[in-house]
Design goal:
Number of domains: 2
Strand order of the largest sheet: 1-2
Largest sheet: 2 strands, antiparallel
Keywords: Membrane, Transmembrane, Transmembrane helix
Mean pLDDT: 86
Number of strands: 2
Order of helices and strands: HHHHHHHHEEH
Strand content: under 5%
Shape: globular
Helix content: over 70%
Length: 249
C-alpha cells in the first residue's frame, strides 16, 4: 500500500513538473525585467512583490491543470486501485510542494531588495526595532500561514466545482458549465451573506487570540473562526471526494 502511495505521488509530481518549471521561468524572467527596467530601488521592491502575491492562485491553478490532464483519461484515473481520497490528496500535496518551491524562488529577489532598503535607511522600522526581530519573524510566519490557508481554501473550491461538473455532465450535457458556474456563484453569494449574520458571529467569535501586528495596527483573530474554516475546508474536501467517486465514466 505504501509503495502504491509513493508511486502515485511520484506520478503526480512528474505530471506537474512542466507547470512548475514554466512557473519558475516566468518568475525569474519577470524579476530580471524588473531589475533591468525599473530604475528606483523602492519601485523595484514594490513590483517584485507582484509575482509573490499572485502565488495566492498558484495552488488552485496547479490543481485545476492537473485535474484537467486526468480528465482526458478519466476512466483510467478513477479505476485506479487508490481511493478518490488518496488520488485527490496526492494532487493537493504535489500542488503545495510546487507552490512552496516557486514561492521561495519568487520571494528571494524582493527579500534581497528589502534587506538593501533597510540597510541603506530607505525603510525605517518603528522605535528602532530590527526588521528581523522576533516580532517581525512571527508576523512573517503568520502571514505565510494565512497565505497558504487562503490558497488551500481556493484550491478546495476549485476541486468542488470540478467534481460537481464531472458529476453533472452526464445529465446536463452542454449546459454543465452554465449550471456549475451559476451554482458556484450562488454558493459564494450565500456564503458572503452568511458571514455577516449574527449567527455566524455567535458561532465563530469566541476564543480571542491576543495578537499585535508590527506597527500600530491590531487584529482580532478568534479560535472559533479558525475552527469554522477548518471544518468548512474539511467538508469541501470530503464532499469533492464523494462526488468524484460517483462520477460515471
Amino acid at each position: 500500500m505504501l509503495t502504491a502511495w509513493k508511486g502515485l505521488l511520484h506520478k503526480d509530481f512528474r505530471m506537474g513538473r512542466t507547470w512548475l518549471l514554466t512557473g519558475i521561468f516566468i518568475v525569474v524572467a519577470v524579476n530580471l525585467f524588473i531589475a533591468f527596467r525599473v530604475p528606483s530601488m523602492e519601485k523595484r521592491f514594490g513590483w517584485s512583490l507582484l509575482p509573490v502575491t499572485l502565488h495566492l492562485f498558484y495552488w488552485p491553478v496547479y490543481l485545476y491543470s492537473s485535474l484537467q490532464v486526468e480528465a482526458k483519461q478519466l476512466h483510467q484515473w478513477l479505476h485506479n486501485t487508490q481511493s478518490a481520497l488518496r488520488l485527490v490528496t496526492s494532487k493537493l500535496l504535489n500542488g503545495l510542494l510546487a507552490m512552496l518551491i516557486s514561492l521561495l524562488i519568487s520571494a528571494a529577489y524582493p527579500s534581497y531588495l528589502f534587506y538593501i532598503l533597510i540597510r541603506e535607511g530607505h525603510i525605517l522600522v518603528r522605535d528602532g526595532t530590527s526588521a528581523f526581530s522576533a516580532e517581525w519573524v512571527r508576523f512573517g510566519f503568520t502571514a505565510l500561514g494565512s497565505f497558504l490557508w487562503i490558497s488551500l481554501s481556493l484550491s478546495l473550491l476549485v476541486l468542488l466545482l470540478w467534481s460537481a461538473y464531472r458529476r453533472l455532465n452526464p445529465y446536463t450535457g452542454k449546459w454543465t458549465w452554465l449550471v456549475t458556474a451559476v451554482g458556484g456563484i450562488s454558493l459564494l453569494l450565500l456564503f458572503g451573506k452568511w458571514v455577516h449574520t449574527d449567527l455566524y458571529l455567535w458561532l465563530t467569535q469566541w476564543g480571542f487570540i491576543p495578537y499585535t501586528l508590527p506597527g500600530e495596527a491590531n487584529v482580532t483573530p478568534y479560535i472559533g473562526e479558525y475552527l469554522f474554516d477548518f471544518l468548512l475546508n474539511t467538508g469541501l474536501f470530503f464532499l469533492s471526494c464523494r462526488l468524484i467517486e460517483k462520477v460515471e465514466v
